[in-house]
Amino acid sequence: MTGSAVCQTSRPIPDAGCAIEARSLHVYYGIFRALKDVDLQIERQKITAIIGPSGCGKSTMLRSFNRMNELVPSCRTEGKVMFRNRNIYDSGVDPVEVRRRIGMVFQRPNPFPKSIYENIAWGARINGYRGHLDELVEESLRLAALWEDVRDKLQQSALALSGGQQQRLCIARAIAIRPEIILMDEPASALDPIATLKIEELMRELAERYTFVVVTHNMQQAARVSHQTAFFMMDADRAGYLVEQGPTRDLFTNPRDRRTEDYITGRFG
After folding, report:
1. pLDDT in tens, the chain (269 residues)
2. Helix 163-176 with 133-143: angle, nearest 10 deg
3. What does the alpha-carbon distance between residue 211 and residue 206 come to, in Å, rounded to a whole number?
4. How far apart are CA 169 and CA 236, in angstroms?
5. Residue 154 carries which DSSP code?
6. Could you give the C-alpha distances from 234 to 38, 56, 77, 171, 239, in angstroms and in order?
7. Which of 146, 145, 210, 130 is nearest to 178 (CA)?
């Protein structure tokens, strides 16, 4: 089976509502275990928030969903992450193809030092897009609620945009390569409240088309924007583990685990 087969299988996934799933996942950096025995399902076309205290492995969990952790030389992963009925960590799976299907938006906006147009077109082009680039650029910017702001500035530098606009451009750039899942690591932490609200509104709109997994330290943001929430903690050895996962409303109003309640109400963390 070729490396891209993870994205081409026509077999139904075991749970039609599950976009991606971690099974008995352990992640190590050298001898340090950052994540311990995580089982986590991400629902299709929903927003799942990952919350928990600093150092509990939230970002490591997020990056395990598209093998970004492998860019750290000392990182080692055990267990499975199932996507389209295939473990993305199997030796025959191409991580570049995984990252094309499972895109990522980082904490701070990181547009390329190119024009607004080329930020969209370049990523699509190197990923093999053969359609009409002008149409793709416009569609992606419209989906990211940025078209009206930049339609007359497409050849200007993306670095001239405001922070919030740059982050929406990064979302448009991710959309342009036609992912199924978009991972977001604290996507609004560097933005002001108005820009943050726009990003949150955009995520809710795009969840009709895409699956989102979002790491956030902001409890109010998780409550506002997500459909599902997963709460992580760390053990005495500082290995992160999943405490509980469930519908956001239930987890915030009636958590099953006392540790979740203590964290949400500010008793610790």
Report:
1. 344 444 333 233 345 689 999 999 999 999 999 999 999 999 999 999 999 999 999 999 999 999 999 999 999 999 999 999 999 999 999 999 999 999 999 988 999 999 999 999 998 888 788 889 999 999 999 999 999 999 999 999 999 999 999 999 999 999 999 999 999 999 988 888 999 999 999 999 999 999 999 999 999 999 999 999 999 999 999 999 999 999 999 999 999 999 999 999 987 65
2. 130
3. 8
4. 40
5. T
6. 12, 5, 18, 31, 5
7. 210
β partners of residue 234: 240
Q: Which two tokens stand for residue 48?
A: 């799942």
Non-local CB neighbours of 53 within 8 Å, separated by 6+ positions: 233, 234, 263, 268, 269
Residues 6 or more apart whose CB falls under 8 angstroms from that of 219 comprise 51, 252, 264
Q: Give residue 169's identity as a one-letter amino acid code.
A: L
160-181 burial, b at 16+ Cβ within 10 Å, e below that, comes to ebeebbbbbbbbbbbbbbebbb
Amino acid code (one letter) for 2: T
What's the pTM? 0.90
Q: Are strands 211-215 and 181-185 parallel, antiparallel or unpaired?
A: parallel
Angstrom distances, CA of residue 108 to CA of 79, 105, 188, 191, 226: 30, 8, 8, 9, 20
Give Cα separations from 142 to 24, 47, 79, 151, 160 (angstroms): 39, 20, 39, 10, 19
Residue 249: DSSP 8-state: H
All structural domains of the chain, each given as residue ranges with its CATH number in brackets, are 3-109+182-264 (3.40.50.300)
Region label for 71, one of left (φ > 0), alpha (ψ between -120 and 50) or beta (otherwise)? alpha
Question: Which token pair is 143?
Answer: 């989906």
